[in-house]
Amino acid sequence: MASKVLSMEIGANYTRICMTDYKVKSPKVYKYAKIETPDNILMDGEIQATPEFVSLLKDTIKSNGMNAKQVVFPITSSKVATREVTIPHVKEKQIDPLIRANLKDYFPIDLSQHELGYLQLSENAANNERKILLLAVPRLILDSYKKLAAALNLQLVALDYSGNSIFEMVKNDCKDGVKMVIKVDEESSIITIVENSAIVLQRNIAYGIDDAIQTIVNNSAFEASNYDEALDLAARKTCMKLSINAKELRETDEEEASDDARLLAAKQEVAGSLNMLLNGVARIMDYYGSRNGGKTVDNIYITGLGTDFSGLSKLFTNELGIKTVGLKHLEGHSLEKSFKDGRFGEFITCVGAAINPVGFLSRTDEKSASAGAAGKNGSGNGAAVAGVLIFVLGILAAGGIIGYAFYQNQLAAQRYQRDVNELNSLSEIRTIYATYQVADGVHTQVETIYKMTRNPNENLLTFCGDLERILPTDVHINSFSSTPESVNMVLEVSSKQEMANVVQDLRNLDSVLDVRVLGATDDVDEEGKNKVTFTVECTYVPVDVSDANTAE
What we know:
Blueprint: E1 4-10, E2 14-21, E3 29-36, E4 42-43, E5 46-47, H1 51-63, E6 70-75, E7 81-88, H2 92-101, H3 103-106, E8 114-124, E9 129-138, H4 139-151, E10 155-161, H5 162-170, E11 178-184, E12 189-195, E13 198-205, H6 210-218, H7 227-236, H8 253-256, H9 261-272, H10 275-291, E14 299-304, H11 312-320, E15 324-326, H12 348-352, H13 363-377, H14 381-425, H15 428-453, H16 460-470, E16 476-482, E17 486-493, H17 496-507, E18 512-524, E19 530-540, H18 545-551
Parallel strand pairs: 1-6, 6-10, 11-14, 14-15
Antiparallel strand pairs: 1-2, 2-3, 4-5, 7-9, 8-9, 11-12, 12-13, 16-17, 17-19, 18-19
Helix pairs in contact: 6-7, 6-9
């Protein structure tokens, strides 16, 4: 019979807890609960386990009948350092020592202050290689979770990376082709691209649905006075236009025919608040294509809090041009039976963290956890047998203790002298390190000064060259103005479809971070031909000093 654990995801706005099977491919959820996370509890992944928060968690666990004594935490934080590396196709038990032997080549950080884990992305035995995603989590974050577990009187058995938790849940839905899975949360999203059941790319972006929910709360056109009410309303009704540039599409006219002008404007504002999320997803899709011979994503799956956000999947479909659906059933799982109204999306990380966690516990912690689990099973007779064995062994060993202690003392003295000699031989490193610190400080100063001399308008020539390359010959530029941050243009095209194509081409430019259509008008020219005049604002990608230095 599988053991049960509590899996607890502490998010920016909500904390989610479920009691589920541990290390089972298709776990069952027995109990679950969601509470609001108090202010200042989560500081970029690090938990502030205040007495009030601990008391709130204890009360929630008790009132919901969760009696598991072990806990697993999934971790999401921008402080988690990641790096994709390729290693030889060694046996799985040899991966960990191989990684640790080459750590300094992988991470230019103080590894004494981090704990490591890895997630296998893909393997190719024919080419003798494995691709893995290395993860380095600051010990401050890990220690904060350990303290929270101790305060809750729970045994911490594993810590998982949220990206791995998600993959464990959705991999059966990604067996064929290229799928993109987006876990959309309040303030961030985890994007995973899976090709034939193997992760090929995983990224975090700092955009979620928080801005959209806040827009619903703050707009009097919607009947929602707080965050919870807005979430519930967004799940029951479509509170957004299904296109950022609503004039380009007419698919929703029938649906929105009964909406008054004020509500339509409010829906457009909600859709607009999701623009940065859409742009972030689009850029990752472009990056994947550029790194994989122009491959494209076949389908997009939305999970997390965004699963039940009505209209979000259609907005993604319309804006990105790829069929997008919310994952309301997972192949190989039956979670919808365990949750009210079948809405399990926001608990997907909680459940996945207990299937095959990355780890992040040091070897000492792992031994302690194993010993704790073993301690549950051994008692009574074991204690009596152990007492007899200790007595007998004590008599047999007493004669050799003195001699052995003397021998160990001699070895220790030899090791001490060897270490002193080695330390003396390395004393010159102090001078080298001091020189490095001075050089590093000068480099930082020079880099800062250089950055001040850079101006985003230096991209203008490249941008103009890109325009010549992507704009069709029948597109007219009626006006053009540039600032250090952006370019504004008034363009004239023959149809709305051509307008949509131009906007999409602009979004694909490497030098452009964001594209906004500020207005569009339909008209007929002197020859009776249709024309569409629209204003577009293109925001430059911020200048990166390191990129500039490399280029030069």
